[in-house]
């Protein structure tokens, strides 16, 4: 006799109830703590991880980040569109003392990606300051050194002397 989807679900639920004692919340917490390994500083996630090293935890048939779950069980709901930043810089850490809710912008700027490194630059590669009168913002909002930009333009003009002649003659009929 073929099994229906509903009969299989009932069988799975009854088997799960026999194996797991306690409420759903207690079972979820027990499952979470079975994957968290407490050390002197970080609480390392030993369960499944994303390709970036962040812990993944299954709860209510959904996968969520282990560090977000840890924050919510220790500190409460995460407000708004905030992300959880690892202050210890260890993506597998689930210690709530090492976590902080921040905006996406703040999280990116605290990191070590290209955006964060460029935002922290105070001088161009030739040592000119990227501030005050020497700071040039292009159309994309990127910061450039005015002195270097001017020097590069002068060099380009020397390499392309005919460019300006062509432009002047283009308007003459």
How are strands sequenced across the largest beta sheet?
1-2
Q: Measure the end-to-end span.
A: 91 Å
Shape: elongated
Q: Tell me about the biggest sheet?
A: 2 strands, antiparallel
Order of helices and strands: HHEEEEHEEHHEEHH
**On the 0-100 scale, what is the average pLDDT?**
85
Assembly classification: single chain
Give the number of helices: 7
- Helix/strand-derived category reads alpha+beta
The low-pLDDT segments are: none
The CATH top-level class label of the largest domain: Alpha Beta
Computed over alpha carbons, the radius of gyration is: 28 Å
What is the number of strand segments?
8
Please identify, by name, the CATH architecture of the largest domain. Alpha-Beta Complex
Strand-residue proportion: 15-25%
CATH topology of the largest domain: the name is Homing Intron 3 (I-Ppo) Encoded Endonuclease, Chain A
Number of domains: 2
The residue fraction in helices comes out at 40-55%
């Amino acid at each position: 006799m073929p099994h229906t989807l509903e009969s299989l679900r009932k069988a799975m639920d009854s088997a799960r109830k026999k194996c797991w004692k306690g409420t759903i919340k207690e079972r979820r917490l027990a499952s979470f703590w079975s994957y968290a390994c407490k050390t002197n500083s970080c609480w390392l996630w030993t369960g499944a991880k994303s390709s970036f090293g962040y812990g993944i935890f299954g709860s209510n048939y959904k996968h969520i980040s282990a560090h977000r779950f840890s924050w919510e069980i220790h500190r409460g709901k995460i407000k708004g569109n905030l992300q959880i930043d690892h202050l210890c810089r260890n993506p597998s850490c689930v210690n709530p003392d090492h976590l902080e809710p921040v905006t996406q912008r703040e999280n990116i700027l605290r990191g070590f990606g290209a955006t964060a490194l460029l935002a922290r630059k105070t001088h161009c590669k030739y040592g000119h300051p990227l501030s005050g009168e020497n700071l040039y913002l292009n159309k994309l909002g990127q910061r450039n050194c005015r002195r270097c930009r001017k020097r590069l333009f002068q060099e380009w003009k020397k390499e392309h002397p005919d460019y300006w002649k062509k432009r002047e003659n283009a308007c003459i009929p």
